[in-house]
Amino acid sequence: LNRGFTEMHCMSGHSNFVSCVCIIPPSDLYPRGLIATGGNDHNICIFTVDNSAPLYVLKGHKNTVCSLSSGKFGTLLSGSWDTTAKVWLNDRCMMTLQGHTAAIWAVKILPEQGLMLTGSADKTIKLWKAGRCERTFTGHEDCVRGLAILSEMEFLSCANDASVRRWQISGECLQVYYGHTNYIYSISVFPRCKDFVTTGEDRSLRIWKHGECAQTIRLPAQSVWCCCVLDNGDIVVGASDGIIRVFTESLERTASAEEIQAFENELSQASIDPKTGDLGDINADDLPGREHLKDPGIRDGQTRLIKDNGKVEAYQWSVSEGRWMKIGDVVGSSGATQQTSGKVLFEGKEYDYVFTIDVNESGPSYKLPYNITDDPWLTAYNFLQKNDLNPMFLDQVAKFIMDNTKGQTLLCTSSQFSDPFTGAGRYVPGSSSGLSAIPATDPFTGAGRYVPGSASNAVAPVDGGDPFTGMGAYQSAAAKVENIYFPKKDAVTFDQANPTQILGKLKELNGTAAEEHKLTEDDLIILEKLLSATCNTSAETPTAQQLQTLWRAVNWPEDIVFPALDILRLSVRHPTVNENFCSEKEHVQFIILLKFLNPKGKQANQLLALRALCNCFVTHAGQKLMMEQRDEILTQAIETKSGNNKNIHIALATLTLNYAVCLHKVNNIEGKAQCLSVISTIMEVVQDLEAIFRLLVAVGTLISDDTNAVQLAKSLGVDSQIKKYASVSEPAKVKECCRFVLNLL
């Protein structure tokens, strides 16, 4: 009877070592699922179960791909030594997650859509939502090596600091588990419960139940690289000796007596290097002989060292069998101490020494960590307090520390600068917790006053119902509602204008401008002509002189520039101005416009800059510039969401909608991924229903006629984000448009 596994296929597709493997669950297209592998050749190979050559190869990382995780709807998340993670859908890269400063060793897609985790050698874990970093988890003191999901709200991480941490998605660390004595490489959770297993550089597999290390299984290999729990609860481990071993609690799956004996023999012949600190501090001269094994152990996995014929041997207590099992010979331990082996890990921290103290023969032994920078008396006092021991031992323990460290002490140095007068950290300007400024209200108020973005002068459209103005959108319930909303074919622009008010404001502020910014009477007349030329009140074409004057005004200081920005917003719709603005070689004016998106700047400027960008989409030259600069524009524009200004939100939603219109035409899936991610992020803060409506039309336009984009929107959780708008009563267009989008999802 063969109880083991047999090799079915040998797949090859990488030009160098394979560093991670992951299963992509079955789908309609591949009912048996797929296998993804990441390699040192920077590639990811995707295999079908029955072919030894790759179905396709994903290229894009610039260094070893060392971790993979698969999610719903065909998404795959990869982490690399190049410090980035990438999200793939089928055979395309959808987005790149940037933010870590060192290799990403671990990645996991969470059950809640759109949420992803990355763990890095920079000691942090990051939570990403729709491709943006939402939160950074700090606490580990060394490289994060593994991640495991417990539930929608909780996950585990393991690290080179020899600790496991349990976290809440909200950012809180709930528990730290210590037990390993060296790096922990891998962690895996048992199905349907919170128990888990870990493996690491201390030759062990550890099984954790109810927050405690319930069992330690030693292996005849120094590095136990990876572990996974199968659906039946069996544990599989891969180690540095090139062997995969499966452990089980099930009697019918247990290996034969010969195989178990062979495993024990292999284990007992292993040589353990005392320098690794796996077994604590060892001094061969002080070790007891074989008689020490007559006494039973007190807990499973307890280790004991004995000296037999000048050889040091390590044994481990097995509760189930009631005996000491040999786990290896300790080599080169002729009085080797921590001084020859560098630092020792204890509870995840590095120490110069970790002593094992037996207070009395029958009782348990205690670990006493010590650094030569510590005070021996204080360390001894803390050790007795922590372990509830008799303070009478103080002299003995302190003397023991001093004898065994041969009086090595160092001057204590603090790594943090502190203020010599107060002893506290230095005052850092800008870090004060003072009150933040009250948000600026609209700069001008009063009847007939010019207020940027006021829609009081919007022109009512002709009947026929334009969904963007909300006019005429009401339909009787009996009529069959048809989708008039998307895919949208043309850009949406901001056209409302009151040239008289804008010029009045410009003149008023020109009076307060510094001499070097002041415009002459002639300049003002020139701008008036430009306005009438671009607002269709005259048939003239804007001239180069008019544009020169406009650029001078747009370079005004930020507290008075907004009327000039409003003239730019209206003028840029004119083909001549648009061509001039968008085809400029150096993009100087465009860069100036972008800087007004700064969320710390004035809201009036943010609003008008967003509207001007929306209006750039009216010509081919404008669309070309907007698409070329998409990364830069969207990254900056999204920051304006924080001001909670409804007009800004509407302009921001319109910008994404105009991008959706362009992306729908060229069918650029990477661009769609970026746009969906931005929409998903804005949806979280926007309250205004007009802005929501425009975002819904943008989503509908992006996913129309594109199954990849539909899968992507689902994997980002867009459907769950928009559901609530299907029941909005007024305006009806929000509900209708939302239902059309949900039908596609």
From TrEMBL:
Residue ranges occupied by any PFU domain in the UniProt entry: 316-415
Cell compartments where the protein resides: Cytoplasm; Nucleus; Synapse
Main location: cytoplasm
Keyword Nucleotide-binding: no
Keyword vocabulary terms for this entry: Cytoplasm, Developmental protein, Neurogenesis, Nucleus, Repeat, Synapse, WD repeat
GO cellular component, one term: nucleus
Sequence ranges of the WD repeats: 58-88, 97-129, 177-209
Gene3D superfamilies to which the protein is assigned, alphabetical: Leucine-rich Repeat Variant, PFU (PLAA family ubiquitin binding), C-terminal domain, YVTN repeat-like/Quinoprotein amine dehydrogenase
Tagged with keyword Nucleus: yes
One biological process term in Gene Ontology: nervous system development
Cross-referenced PROSITE patterns: PFU, PUL, WD_REPEATS_2, WD_REPEATS_REGION
PUL domain: residues covered: 484-744
Entry-linked SMART domains: WD40 (SM00320)
TM annotation in the entry: none
Gene Ontology molecular functions: phospholipase A2 activator activity; ubiquitin binding
Family: Belongs to the WD repeat PLAP family.
Known role: Plays a role in protein ubiquitination, sorting and degradation through its association with VCP. Involved in ubiquitin-mediated membrane proteins trafficking to late endosomes in an ESCRT-dependent manner, and hence plays a role in synaptic vesicle recycling. May play a role in macroautophagy, regulating for instance the clearance of damaged lysosomes. Plays a role in cerebellar Purkinje cell development.
Protein name per the record: Phospholipase A-2-activating protein
Gene name per UniProt: Plaa
